[in-house]
Amino acid sequence: MSRNGKIVLMLLLAAAGISLAVIAMQREEIADPVARISRDGVVLKEIPLDQVGRAYSFVLEDELGSNTILVERGRIRVSQADCPDQVCVDQGWISDGTAPIVCLPHKLVIEIVGGGEAFDAAAG
Amino acid sequence: MRRLALPALALALLLTGCGSGAATVQNSLFAMDTVMSFTLNGEGDPQALQDTLGELGEIIHGLEDRMSATDEDSEIYALNHAQGQPVSLSPETAELLEQALELCRVTGGALDITAYPAVEAWGFPTGEYRVPGPEELDQLVGQIDYTRLEVDEADGTAVLPAGMEADLGAVAKGYAGDLLAEQLAEQGIDSALLNLGESTILAVGEKPEGTPWRIAVQDPAGEGYLGVLELRDRALGTSGGYQRYFESGGQTYWHIMDPATAAPARSGLAGVTVVSSSGLLCDGLSTALFVMGLEEGVQFWRDHQSLEFEVLFVTDEGELYLTPGLEDSFSLTEEYRDRGVTVLS
After folding, report:
1. C-alpha distances in angstroms, B115 versus B37, B127, B254, B258, B328?
2. Domain ranges of chain A
3. Tens digits of residue pLDDT in B238-288
4. To bridge B83 with a disulfide, which of A19, B8, B144, B162 should be the other Cys (CB 3.0-4.6 Å)?
5. Cα separation of A33 and A17, whole Å?
6. Do A121 and B6 touch (CB under 8 A)?
7. Does domain A34-113 bear CATH number 2.60.320.10?
8. A-chain residue closest to B212, CA distance
9. B-chain residue closest to A98, CA distance
10. Chain B within 8 Å of A57 (Cβ-Cβ)?
11. What is the pTM of this model?
């Protein structure tokens, strides 16, 4: 094989390696659970739950009201809210895509996408 | 730059290679006082699926505009505030009122779509909860009587005596789900999950990989899922005291009213899930069976086999009762493995 041929081969191998790496990363991205927080259909925040180190919380506030979100590795919940029914707080932690947390008065939805769903929906 | 083009091309080929024309589209919307989520699967043009998804949303919002009890521009609001005068209705509202009245009759009034004054008195529509006294409850009971609601479907009119109020909350989502499923059938979409807010779910066809839709059933007493129903081409309706409630003086009061007492139904059941081919039937019957309680509900199931519905009852003590038609499609989750399930006969 000529010197040029070797370079082409190495480049091809490198290219294949890079593309495989990219594919693997994409697969990984789909496989990991991501908490998607949206208000009235507009995505506010996406949190890859497997990359959470120390637990943390933050407040989402607008003219409709405020919700305090608590995040731990692999799971998420609403820990406090000033809505009248407290349904979002009462639901507790979610860790898969079976059922989203919904704060109806504040039009806030926390759903988990990816990570494999144990169920397609929850009845209740 | 040329070196980079190759992996990009390889990646594109590999990614499109897995596609084979199958598409999944999903959408969530706020309607009928809940969050709905629709998933459609199909072959071919994803944009066509996306368009269908948009049409489903329009159907839902159209129904909500006509049938909401709280929207002052709705037909039901007009009916409730017409002081005994006839009001004209759209064909859908007239049809649903008539079908809902039929369910009221079949269930002997365990479902009563004129129980709305009680729902209001307890504060559920506004969230300003209160516990009405015995005299007020007596008076409310007198305002609840579906037989006094007259619907003329041919004329498209209805009359309700002054002081009475109708509400389609117990049946509207099921009816809406049936309309959506019809729309999908017309467009040849045979794999979809229509989640009309967790209390009403329609599993259209099966999943693209040829397996049934897996619907988790919430434990009324806790945060977990007690079991899973595997459904193909079936609707599901769930009623439970845990769905909407308030606490006062150490007591829990929920939104499902017993028409006979104008107070939250306390029948010993914590949750009822009904499975059939009709969303409307599932919705209406789950409420009625919750009001009836286990014994009367089981008898109702035995006496109305022609309606072709199956039931999962969960009692206040956490006992599970299943009609035999669900035996193969229901299984307990890992955490509830030890829970006994009684199959009815």
Report:
1. 28, 17, 14, 8, 36
2. 3-28, 34-113
3. 999 888 889 999 999 999 999 999 999 999 999 999 999 999 999 999 999
4. B162
5. 26
6. no
7. yes
8. A120
9. B216
10. no
11. 0.81
